[in-house]
Amino acid sequence: MVVWQEYSIGLLVVLVTAIIGFYVLSREKDDLHRLLLIDLVEIPSLGIIALLGTDLAEALVLPGLVVGIAELLALGQLYLTKEGLQDRPVRGLHIEVIDTSPAPVIISILLVIYGIILSGFTGGGIAGLGIVFLFMSRGFKENFSLIEAAAGISWAVWILAFFVFMFAPQYWYFAVMAAGIGILFKVMAKMALVGTMWGEGR
Amino acid sequence: MIAVGGEPFYYLEFGDIVLYFSPVTTTLFVLALLFTLFVLASRPERQVDIAFGSDAYLAKVITPGELHFRKFMATACGLASMGAMVTGDVFDFTLFASLVGITNIGIVAAVKNRHVQNAAYQYGLVSLSATVPLFSGAAMVAATTGTLSLIELAKGTYPAVPLAVKSFLVLGIIGEGMAPFYAAKAEMFRAPGAPYVIMCSLSSLLIFLRVVEIAMTM
């Protein structure tokens, strides 16, 4: 019963935040600010899912977050096209310590190693962050077909692992390992591509 | 068992996600499949602009890249609708509905016209804000009953889903999975981006029918 009371209080708080967000949204007239505010309003919806407080909540927050980010990216791209902002070059970070010292490389290597130890989705995120940082600080001249191919293959490995879970559950250990490694490489490769979006023009 | 849609005659299990084929869901699935096949077979509409003050007219050219993008988005929309028609899991349904929403934005936004892109952007804002009631509705179904499976909910052994939660879910679907009415205008067959724009309307229709079935089953 105590749990249910806590759930109701949490629900009330989250719904009030959502209502405040929607009120602000209804008063805002600028397109870009509305997009940013909607991102803010999405957080209460993740909060409501997280209020479940079980394993299921964790499994539901992730797809909810991914769908939200996907729509946000699509709308951001649409805003750039709509306003004709696509040809504007973005300047990289020009800080002396990042440009000349080996610090970014060392930090990236540490992050990648830590990510590989963690493995899975979190590991992929951390290792990918290291590569994003390297690309952002040093620029990039590589050909990305290799990274894209690696992302595709690791995604296929991940899906294969799911089929093993469904149709041959006795080999679950193999499937866990395959899924962990597959998602590690997939997330890492995708985030590395995100890092290249920042840089000197195209 | 599932009284509204008729007795399911086939269950397809993927772990704890179970797809079920009852007379209603199968009909909707077949319709979505047919629409997807039509999209794959159809050719783009070529618009013609009359130049004022002369006899000239300008035929608009659709580049192969643009055509591929529209066709891909319309096909993806069809696949997402097919998934939404047969899934037996409430959260899965909301995810498919948001996928329909994203692809609908893509179909409309593929037209290289400032006014059309503005409309697509506004529609995107509506559908993005609709994910709040959509996902909260699905999460509250799990919180009030303890399950997300429609097959379990239909048995009647679980606590009833409150009306407020149902209306949250339906509100989310109205914003997310159903294209707005300004996209479903009468001259849609000749509109920029035709005939793929029609997929927005068809997927909305299917999603609408399915959410009625789900809300009555819960």
Strand and helix layout:
The complex is a heterodimer of chains A (202) and B (218).
Chain A: H1 2-27, H2 31-50, H3 55-83, H4 96-100, H5 103-118, H6 120-138, H7 145-167, H8 172-195
Chain B: E1 10-14, E2 17-21, H1 23-41, E3 48-50, E4 57-59, H2 64-86, H3 90-109, H4 114-145, H5 150-154, H6 163-176, H7 198-217
Antiparallel strand pairs in B: 1-2, 3-4
Helix pairs in contact in B: 1-2, 1-7, 2-3, 2-7, 3-4, 3-7, 4-6, 6-7
Describe this structure in words.
- The complex is a heterodimer of chains A (202) and B (218).
- Chain A has 202 residues and is mainly alpha-helical.
- Chain A folds into 2 domains: 2-83, no CATH class; 96-195, no CATH class.
- Chain A has 8 helices and no strands.
- In chain A, helix 1 (2-27) packs antiparallel against helix 2 and helix 6 runs parallel beside helix 8.
- Chain A is globular, with a radius of gyration of 21 Å.
- The termini of chain A are far apart.
- The model of chain A has no long low-confidence stretch (mean pLDDT 81).
- Chain B is mainly alpha-helical and 218 residues long.
- Chain B has one domain (10-217).
- Helices cover 61% and strands 7% of the residues of chain B.
- Chain B has 7 helices and 4 strands.
- A two-stranded antiparallel ribbon of chain B has the order 1-2.
- Chain B starts with 9 loop residues before the first strand and ends with a helix.
- The A-B interface holds A 7, 11, 18, 22, 25, 31, 34-35, 38, 41-42, 44-46, 48-49, 51-52, 56-57, 60, 63-64, 67-68, 70-72, 74-75, 78-79, 81-82, 165-166 and B 14-15, 91, 95, 98-99, 101-102, 105-106, 109, 114, 117-118, 120-121, 124-125, 127-129, 131-136, 138-140, 142-143, 148.
